[in-house]
Amino acid sequence: MDNMQIYNLVRVVPKEAQKTIKGGRLSGFTDINAMWRIQKLTETFGPCGIGWKYTIEREWLEQGANGEIAAFMDILLYYKHGDDWSEGIPGTGGSSFVAKERNGLYTSDECYKMALTDAISVAAKAIGMGADVYWEKGRTKYDTPPQEEPKNQKEPTNPKEPEYFRCESCGKILKPYNDANGKSVPIRKHAEGSKAKFGHIYCLDCIQKFSEMANMSDAIMSQHEDAGDRV
Fold first, then answer.
1. Distance from C-alpha of 89 to C-alpha of 79, rounded to nearest angstrom
2. pLDDT attached to residue 180
3. Which letter, b or e, does each residue of 56-92 get, where b requires 16 or more Cβ atoms within 10 Å of its Cβ?
4. Residue 112: its pLDDT value, please?
5. Does the structural domain 9-134 have CATH classification 3.40.50.300?
6. How far apart are CA 192 and CA 94, in angstroms?
């Protein structure tokens, strides 16, 4: 048997089954339609329960920060090749059971269903399912590519550190920019400076927003103090 036979059958994801995630920490990444995986498993091996199947090994909840609770699930995925069933392929999926949203905590009654969908995708990835989305010329598409910096101003690369940085407030990818003197500020230099000053990596927009909020707070306190002096 060609070792790459199954991998090559399931690696390509049609454009209509791909969706770019907008907003949040995963902004810019690619989401693969869950039903496409089911269709591809069925096309390749046969109907669920006959040509492929899964068993749920464990379900559990984990307490998170700020009252949030996450639901997790372990499964084993099996597929039939010829007359033989494969060994179980492990997959762990997760989803939010209690999530903190704008209007408060929200409890999901579909958390285990979504965790199962996630677990199937993780297990199916091991046989090459959707590989062309996850892998492109040796890099993972889920890793946002590093921003290109001006020529002759590239910084030394530390292989242990990521080649890009995200704002820890809004999730945006940091980009190089010019300072007040017109000099280019590399991404890494900005990230290290922000970390040293604020304890977190923030983009310019968030730094400006926080500064305006701080100035407003100082102005309000000053008004209160002036009013107190006049009493």
1. 9
2. 78
3. eeeeeeeeeeeeebbbbbbbbbbbeeeeeeeeebebe
4. 96
5. no
6. 32
Domain boundaries of the chain, sorted by first residue: 9-134, 146-231
Residues sharing a CB contact under 8 Å with residue 29, sequence separation 6 or more, in sequence order: 20, 21, 141, 142, 144
Q: Provide the whole-model pTM.
A: 0.56
From CA 28, how far away is CA 192, in angstroms rounded? Answer: 24
Check residue 137 and report its DSSP letter: T
**CA distance linking residue 158 with residue 227, whole number of Å:** 55
One-letter amino acid of 23? G
What are the backbone dihedrals phi and psi of residue 112, each rounded to the nearest 5 degrees, phi first? -70, -30
Residues 6+ apart with CB under 8 A from 64: 70
Average the pLDDT over 117-132 and give the result. Answer: 93
22 vs 228: which has the higher pLDDT:
22
